[in-house]
Each structure stands twice: as C-alpha cells, then as structure tokens.
Amino acid sequence: MKKLWHNGLIYTMEAEGETVEAVLTEGDRIIQTGAMEQLRELADEQIDLQGAVMYPGFVDSHIHLIMYGQKLQRLDLSKAESTQEMLALLQKRALTLQEGEWLFGEGWNENNFPDRRIPSIEELDAVYKGPIILSRICHHVYLCNTEALRKGGISIESENPPGGEVGRNSRGELSGLLYEQAKNPVYEAAQPRGEAFIKMLEQSLQLAIDDMLKRGIVGAHTEEMSYFGHYMNPLTAYKNVMNKKHFRVNLLRHHLVFEQMMQDSVTFDEPYVEPGAMKIFADGSLGGSTAALLEPYEDDPASFGMLIHTDEQIESYVKLAREYGEAIAVHLIGDAGVEQLLDAVEKYPVPVGKRDRFIHCCVLQDHLVARMKKLPIVLDLQPAFVTSDFPWVEKKLGKKRLPWAYAWKRLLDEGFMCAAGTDAPIEEVEPLKTIYAAVERKLPGQSHKGYGESEKLSRFEAVKMYTYGSAQAICKEHERGLIKDGYVADFTIFNRDLFEGSSNDMLKAKVDKTVVGGKVVYQNEEK
Questions:
Q1: How far apart are CA 142 and CA 501, in angstroms?
Q2: What is the C-alpha to C-alpha distance for residues 151 and 487, in angstroms, rounded to an integer?
Q3: How far apart are CA 202 and CA 197, in angstroms?
Q4: What's the CA gap between 365 and 156, in Å, rounded?
Q5: Cis before residue 444, ω within 30 degrees of 0?
Q6: In the prediction, which pLDDT does 527 show?
Q7: Cross-strand pairs, 377
Q8: 479-521 per-position pLDDT tens digit
Q9: Which candidate, 392, 451, 311, places its Cα nearest to that of 116?
Q10: Looking at 16-82, which runs of residues are DSSP E strands?
Q11: Nearest to 102 by CA among 65, 137, 142
C-alpha cells in the first residue's frame, strides 16, 4: 500500500532549509518525494500531517538501552544536591524493600554537593543492612555498602583488578567506592539468574523503547552484550522485544564477547536488530577523575587518570576486530586515550567500506586532531556533557586545555562526520534537550552566554547529527538519515518547527508522531 504524507512542513535534512511538499512511501521505504499534485494520484492512502513538521527519524547514536530501562525503575539520585539529601532518598527507598533485597540507585554526582563529599560506607551501612549498589552518573564509579561488597567477594584483602581500583580510605579500609573494572563482581552478584533474568531484561527494554518512541526517537546504537552474564541473555531479550516493537537497534559488541560472538556465527534480526562494531573502553570519566590525560589533572597534579588497557592490549583488540573485518567503537574521554588508540588504529586500519567510531572525544589536542583527520572515522558526541560537566570540569582541566575541550563546532568545521547521542542513562534521553545543549551550551533558564560560546552549533547542525550523523556512524547514510527517494520511511514529527523562533521555543515542541519503517509506532493523543 502506498501512503502519501502531506499538509505539513517536511524537512529533507539534505541541505539547510530544504523541504518537500509531500512524501510517498510503500512498505518501509520512501519511493518518491515532490509536489502534492504530482504524487496524489499514486497514493492508496493519504496521511494528513495537519500542519505538523516532519524530519528524518531521530536516532540516539550512543546509549545503553537496557540500563536506561533499569534507570526508569530504580532510585534516581541525579537530583540530590547534598550528601544528606542523597542519604535521605536512600533511607526512604530502604523502607519499601524486603529484607535482603538489593537497593539500586542511579546517577549520584558529588560535584552537585556544596562540599563534594561522597557518603561513607558507614553511612550506607546505617541506612540499610541489605546490599546497596549505587552507580555514579558516569557509570565508571560505583558506591556500595559492606553487604554489597561481601556479596561481590570484595574484602580488605582484595587487590585491584586490571583496569580498576578498589577504593580505600586514609586508614587503608574499604571506602565502598569501586572504580572501573573493580565494580564488576558486585554488579554481577546483583543480577538474577535463569529465565527470570531474561524477563527482567525484556521488561527494561520495553520501558526504555516506549519512552524513546514517545520522544520521537526511532532507533539507537546500544552496547551491553557483556554486562548481563552470557551474551545470549541480552541478545535474546532484544530479539524477543523487537518481535513486538518497531524500533531499530545497532548492537555494539564489547571486546570481551566479540570473538565468541563471531565464532558462534550469531544471527541478528535485521533491520531492527543489527550487529555493530567492537566496543572498547580506553579510559574512564572526568567526573570520577579516571579519564586518561596526557598532562595531570589541574586540581590533582599527582593524577593522570587511568588507561583501562595497556598499549599491547588495545593493539590486540584492534587487530582482532580487523581479523574479522570489523570496525571498532571506542570510549575516549581524555587525550591520552585518544593517543593510545591512534597508535593502534594507524597500525591496523579499518576495513574498506567501514568506519571506526571515536566516542565522546571530550579532551583533544591539535596534533591528535591532525592524525584523526587522516582516518575514516566518525565522532560519536554527547552535547549534554557540556551542561553536565561545566563549570566544575574547568577546575579539572585548567584554562590551557579548554580550547579543545568539548569542541563540537571545531570538530564539525574540521570536516569530521559527527553523530549525536546521550549516553543514557548517563544523560537524559530527551533529544530536544540535547539539541538545546549543543546550540546554547547551557541549561534552560541560565542567563550566561554558554560555556565555550564559540563552540555553539546551529540547530540545523545539531538536528543533522541526530539524523544523518547517526546514519553515518553505521555506514547507512545511503539509506537512512534523510527524507529522500529510496531511504527508509523513518520519521520524527513534531507539532512545531524546531528551526523557527528561539531555542527556548524549540523546547516547547511536542512529538506528534513517531514513524518507523512506514508504520506509526507512537501518536500523541493529547491534541
């Protein structure tokens, strides 16, 4: 059946300001765009947009989808503004739990506290005798009480694992903090087992996808094949849920499970469940002071952060991906991580027709950017990091590093392909807030001119990162990310034009419809 979408403003996103009058689709594809009169007689069905504004479907290029669904179910600590407020939230949640049940919390950020004091393990023990596991906003640091550490097999005698650190206080006692890979034993101990586990993963996925569809998001590039036991646990959950949902996921494959998945000749359910690149974490986060820097932290001259892998390990992972003809997608916050990766990628180039993905790229330098420009890469950026990390990040980096910190505009002007994501559950998944952060580089309601004013993007640039840029990240720009003949019929439809009025006006836009593969999968009934 051929459907004609018309009577609205339809942005192709191929060029700034370019629109078409009508779009004709058949099945999951756009077969023709053009004038209403030209296409009317070809249609079997007409869909009246009633003045709404249509864009290519928005895709979040970087998310942890199951974890985002879990966040929707867990205690949200992101709004806590003091140690005392955080403990009060935990105390209130503890009263609702059965004895011995795990208390999960998400998103604490000591940089929002006046004294920046993280609750002690003794304070957590006083709140609840059962196990407590609390992920920092960056998910690179966890805070646990004594019972959670015990269940994870972590004791005073425990040594730091490769790529991680067990936190201790000045007396050498356990502090409850677990950095990077040290968190894994406790995280695994908190997971249920068997069929109930997969059902739990499916429930989290369904919640996450329903939430994203109502925000106009048609797909996501996600990574969690190694976080829930055997990789078949999350993969099974994805396949089961996508049998019921119209939503596109590209599954990055962590280096710990990549080779096994390749050897097992794992099948995917394309085009809604697709295989992605090998995922590697090179370093940590600036908030947790685990991002790897070439020069020490300004506020801690003894610290350069933490490279998760040795040079030899990074090289071996890149080499392994190439042996299977695959690209890599690498978490890179600090410039030391970028330098380490460049050495490996230059030695083992990406296969022809694919692109490596450099994720985050928060701290760069001229000589690193010059090397990056010679490679077929796409940059996976998170504009909301600016509004989350400033102004405290200035104290960690110092003024000298700020010109190449969170430098989205400079990277676009240098000619890099750039995609937009949120890293949810790290940041809010709402695309309009992400676009606002890219354009204004401040939070709504703040009166200053923005952090790094010269790095502001236009709204067209920011929206294109969500559409065409996300397609480029998986080498699908020949069929996704534009409203164009032959492209997939994925549309995000708002009740107002995102390019008209002020940035604050843009935030008032409501999703009218979300369309995936020609099918309306969300419709706002509040008209």
A1: 42
A2: 51
A3: 9
A4: 40
A5: no
A6: 59
A7: 356
A8: 999 999 999 999 999 999 999 999 999 999 999 999 999 999 9
A9: 392
A10: 19-20, 22-26, 29-34, 45-48, 53-56, 58-63, 75-76
A11: 142
